[in-house]
User: What shape does this take?
Amino acid sequence: MPVSCTPTSTYGLVIGWGEAATKILISYGQRRSVARSRRRNARLTMAGDIMPPVLMYHSVAPQRRDPAPWTVSPKRFDQQMRWLSRRGRTGVSMRELLEARRNGSRRDLVGLTFDDGYADFAEYALPVLQRYGFTATVFVIAGRLGGYNTWVEGARKPLMTAGQLRQLAAGKIEIGSHGLHHVSLLSVTDADLSGEIEMSRRVLQEVSDQDVPGFCYPYGEHDGRVISAVQAAGYDYCCAVGYSEFTGRYALPRIDIVDSDSWPFLWAKGTHYWLRWEYRGPGSRFLVSASRLRAGL
Assistant: This one.
């Protein structure tokens, strides 16, 4: 049976559609505004929009004991630090790097970071750092002190104990948080997120007797909600891995270093960083656009 539409019913139908469409547009606009605000607040871009050079390590140990791809042998690590030193670079902690940046004296400084807090740091990495007068930041998993890297498939590696952590903190090694249990923060509830971020900091502050200003995202995973949480917890900076829409003080990109990185590879990675963040000559805008495109931005 055909449906007849009187002028009044047609007018009411149009008005209803209009109201619905308006609500959808308003809701969409609000979501877009919130998203933009989160990105803007999360980035807190560094002065000049230049990210400081930061190297990312995990474990330093003899390869015969550990075939993991993210383990660097002591011999290779010494070669890499010597290469930096001979080129007038000084490896420093994230706290020192960012403080120097605030004072306008960051030139020739390179941030050195070690994720997960492996027990082999004190035995193999620390002596090399001390030999060259370098410092570093170790991002520790607060809920796994004295435990093992059970989140990784393959050979188990011991994590530093509370006593080892205190010894490092008593020197010039900065202690940062890598969460409580090394879980993806994108998938946890708000309550668990708060625990991973806030509780881990309190534990490490008590153990290390340091302020613990830095956080490192497990797996490098973060979004606006996660970054808002670390900001609310009072962290001064956060380390990520690659570039993202949130790249800035609370998502600092880092250069992944592996055992196969001899000096030509270090040079290539350093050149890539320089072209992306410091070069301001002809074609620099194209290089930045290409880098953003590669990162999916």
Remarks:
- Strands lie at 54-57, 59-60, 71-72, 90-92, 109-116, 137-140, 174-177, 214-216, 237-239, 255-256.
